[in-house]
Write a structure and sequence with these properties.
Layout (H helix, E strand, L loop, with lengths): L9 H9 L6 E10 L14 E6 L6 E6 L3 E6 L4 E5 L14 E6 L6 E6 L3 E6 L4 E5 L14 E6 L6 E6 L3 E6 L4 E5 L14 E6 L6 E6 L3 E6 L4 E5 L14 E6 L6 E6 L3 E6 L4 E5 L14 E6 L6 E6 L3 E6 L4 E5 L14 E6 L6 E6 L3 E10 L1
Antiparallel strand pairs: 1-2, 1-28, 3-4, 4-5, 5-6, 7-8, 8-9, 9-10, 11-12, 12-13, 13-14, 15-16, 16-17, 17-18, 19-20, 20-21, 21-22, 23-24, 24-25, 25-26, 27-28
Length: 380
């Protein structure tokens, strides 16, 4: 049985720890930067930060997700923590009190994956159940109502949810059987139902069973299938569907004919994606440089960002983008208001800039006006 060491996907790391197959003692530190007015930085203040600041001194953070003005994070012990804005109960604490430092949600230790949307949060447990909380005016919580919830509520009774994504006012999720489901706001076809009817409970998108990963933007959706093809639907006024047009689509349409797409991230009106060859591509709105091709011109088809082939993980914020390379350096570009790019300035960047000099970044998440990321190290 091999040992696990070096840099691994965070979920693989957690599984390796549980199996006792990690060389040394792993450390996972949490950092954030950008707008802090609602406490979303998590350092106990409401001060903006233009460079990464560590959140507390704990070293057991596993995954982080950033929403409009709040964050949610899971630790290696399976506990769930949130902080930031809480006007709709998006922190899940049973109150609407803002928090400028992480607070635990209940006492459970079986949280597995978390996504932070626009004033709401969604999370999957290790038992495959799906839970949501926060704003629910368009049914984005998927519990059949349009009433806000300040504590987690289960979405149906199914136990086969695998991956979830939320941003603006709707949610999309993939099940273990490869089917895709969505719910919430749908005035621009972002639920993929071939209509513009909002839904307060999950509805299946087509009948296919080969969806692999989904990313929700403000009013559009992008997804990769198991065959490596890329699909998108919803709003397209800035070319965020990548079809070469600005025509809205209420059902999934394929982006080109390539079969080597690996992962996709959706911002408010743009997308960024990494291919299996390690190249980075982006499309959609770029008025603040969020595409990263050195211009501020919108792109209605994917364009390559530079010529590098060592991009590993990508996240899209409101109007900015962040990505980790295989050498574990962290890079950002786009809108830099409040310092959300983390380069020590508040100047927009239309090409990737490195965040500091660290080479141990493991995962990054983009919020509306801030960024959060986890570093991974090992102590003996």
């Amino acid at each position: 049985m091999p040992n696990f060491s070096g840099v691994w996907d965070l979920k693989d790391q957690v599984q390796a720890i549980a199996a006792g197959r990690w060389t040394g003692i792993p450390t996972f530190e949490l950092y954030a930067w950008g707008a802090g007015g609602s406490g979303q930085i998590g350092d106990g203040t409401v001060v903006n930060r233009s460079s990464p600041v560590q959140i507390g001194a704990l070293i057991n953070w596993s995954q982080v997700a950033s929403g409009s003005n709040h964050n949610a994070s899971i630790k290696t012990d399976g506990t769930l923590w949130t902080w930031g804005r809480n006007n709709h109960g998006q922190l899940g604490t049973g109150t609407v009190i803002y928090r400028s430092s992480p607070v635990q949600i209940g006492a459970l230790t079986n949280w597995y994956e978390v996504a932070a949307g626009g004033y709401f949060t969604a999370s999957i447990k290790t038992d495959g159940t799906l839970w949501t909380w926060g704003r629910n005016n368009y049914g984005q919580l998927g519990d059949g109502t349009r009433v806000d919830k300040s504590s987690p509520v289960q979405v149906g009774a199914l136990t086969n949810w695998s991956q979830v994504s939320g941003r603006g006012r709707f949610t999309a999720s993939i099940k273990t059987d490869g089917t895709m489901w969505a719910w919430g706001y749908n005035t621009e076809g972002q639920l993929g139902q071939n209509n513009v009817v909002s839904r307060s409970s999950p509805v299946q998108i087509g009948a296919l069973t080969n969806w692999s990963q989904v990313a929700v933007g403000f009013n559009h959706t992008a997804s990769v299938k198991t065959d490596g093809t890329m699909w998108a639907w919803g709003r397209n006024g800035q070319g965020q569907l990548g079809t070469g047009t600005v025509v809205y689509r209420s059902s999934p349409v394929q982006i080109g004919a390539l079969t080597n797409w690996s992962q996709v991230a959706s911002g408010n009106y743009h997308n960024a994606s990494i291919k299996t060859d390690g190249t980075m591509w982006a499309w959609g709105r770029s008025n603040e440089g969020q595409i990263g091709d050195g211009t501020v011109a919108n792109k209605s088809s994917p364009v390559q960002i530079g010529a590098l082939t060592n991009w590993s993980q990508v996240a899209a914020g409101g109007n900015h983008t962040a990505s980790v390379k295989t050498d574990n350096t962290l890079w950002t570009w786009g809108n830099n208001g409040q310092g959300r790019l983390g380069d020590g300035t508040t100047v927009n960047k239309s090409s990737p800039v490195q965040v500091g000099a660290l080479t141990n970044w493991s995962q990054v998440s983009g919020g509306y006006n801030h960024t959060a990321a986890i570093t991974q190290g090992t102590t003996n």
